[in-house]
Amino acid sequence: MRARPLQCPFCDNFLRRPVDISFRSMELTGGICTCGSVYVLDRTGHNLGEIFMEALTFVCRGDIDRALALDPGDYDSIDYDYDHHSNMTGGRPKSGKLGKLVFVRLKD
Questions:
Q1: Distance from C-alpha of 91 to C-alpha of 25, rounded to nearest angstrom
Q2: pLDDT for 34
Q3: Half-sphere exposure of 94 (CA within 13 A, CB side)
């Protein structure tokens, strides 16, 4: 896969690099797109399940019970390899290893 600037997979908006976020009782690294999708970063690329749950909880505004009650048909999700040094998805890392970004958007 060719390296590309960080963009939302749902609306193609260009996004800022993930930042540290403290929201309610959550501590994560990620961001929010103007379309309502959220993205969460795992710098190691080895904790995809954990960051997927963080993304679901984050898109549910911190309500973990609602996040756990969601069916797969209630949301769209996608994950990308991510180089946090260059803020690019896909491709080969310019330095270090690739992390993972998980994007989640609730369906209407």
A1: 34
A2: 97
A3: 9
Q: Is there a contact between 37 and 108 (Cβ–Cβ < 8 Å)?
A: no
At CB < 8 A and 24+ separation, what contacts does 28-34 make?
Answer: 28/54, 28/58, 30/54, 30/55, 30/58, 30/101, 33/8
Would you state the pLDDT for residue 95? 62
**What backbone torsions phi and psi does residue 10 show, to the nearest 5 degrees?**
-95, -30
Quote the pTM value.
0.91
42-53-81 Cα angle (round to 5): 30
For 43, the token pair is 């710098």
Token digits of residue 10:
């749902």
Domain ranges of the chain: 4-106
| Rg of the chain over all Cα atoms, to the nearest angstrom | 13
CA distance 60 to 64: 7
Question: How many angstroms separate the first and last alpha carbons of the chain?
Answer: 31
